[in-house]
Amino acid sequence: MHQESSSHENHDESYFASFTDMLVGIIFIFILLLMVVANDFQQATDAVTKIAESRDKVLREIEKSLKESGVQVTIDTEQGVLRLPEDILFEFGKYEVNDKGKTALKTLSDVLGKFLPCIAVADNQSDAEPCTQLNLASKDGLDAVFIEGHTDSIGSHEHNWELSAKRAIAVFRALTDSNPLLNEGIKNRNGVPVLNVSGYEARRPITTLPENFHLNRRIELRFIMRSPTPEDLKKLNNAVGR
């Protein structure tokens, strides 16, 4: 009887030891998987950061070049936006580009043709200046540039919808007429032209103060960057020696 009890206890102990070993193994595998996921997440985060930093560098260079040429613009690196106020492009309530605007957009088309190839795929892709001077971590992260028309809330919604869209289209035509490369010569990694248009009416105001409504009447160029790919992560690994 005593031998049977001892044998049963040994069996239970053996079973418990095997079960414990299995749990330890599962926990070990889980920790390994967690480390892999954390590593991949960090790599993806690093890749996103490098793509965003490259965009911001290019935006600052575009702003600098335009201001040196007398075209007063502002940038918002948090949103990836280049902003042109209404008064340098259009008369109030009109969508035809005025003479001052034509000059400004000619300058903008030249500057975009110079710097967009630094972060996109262009027909005239080159490693020559000015792209090499920027020392960009990501050179093909641009997915799209939306030319956005924005109005204030004065007037009817129907009028403002039409006005914002027509203004965006007018800017697109002026840019691509001045520099045909901008039409289909600059593409993202999928071979799609990056330049696009959209109209937002008064739905994205900068301010709600009536005395500053003129700030809402604007054209914005919004730089949309792509998400990092497995290829980006592989390049990042190679760059850091992993």
Description of the molecule:
There is one protein chain. This protein has helices at residues 2-68, 99-115, 131-134, 157-178, 181-185, 230-240; strands at 74-76, 81-85, 121-122, 142-150, 186-187, 195-199, 218-225. With 242 residues, it is an alpha+beta fold. It has a single domain, classed as 60s Ribosomal Protein L30, Chain: A (2-Layer Sandwich), CATH 3.30.1330.60. The strands form 2 sheets. A 5-stranded mixed β-sheet has the order 1-2-7-4-6. Strands 3-5 form a two-stranded antiparallel sheet. The protein is globular and about 80 Å long. The mean pLDDT is 85.
Radius of gyration: 28 Å
What global shape is seen? globular
Q: Which percent bin holds the helix content?
A: 40-55%
| CATH topology category name | 60s Ribosomal Protein L30, Chain: A
State the total count of DSSP E strands.
Answer: 7
In whole angstroms, the N-to-C terminal distance is 62 Å
* Structural class category: alpha+beta
Strand content: 5-15%
Query: In sequence order, what are the helices and strands, one letter per element?
Result: HEEHEHEHHEEEH
Mean pLDDT figure: 85
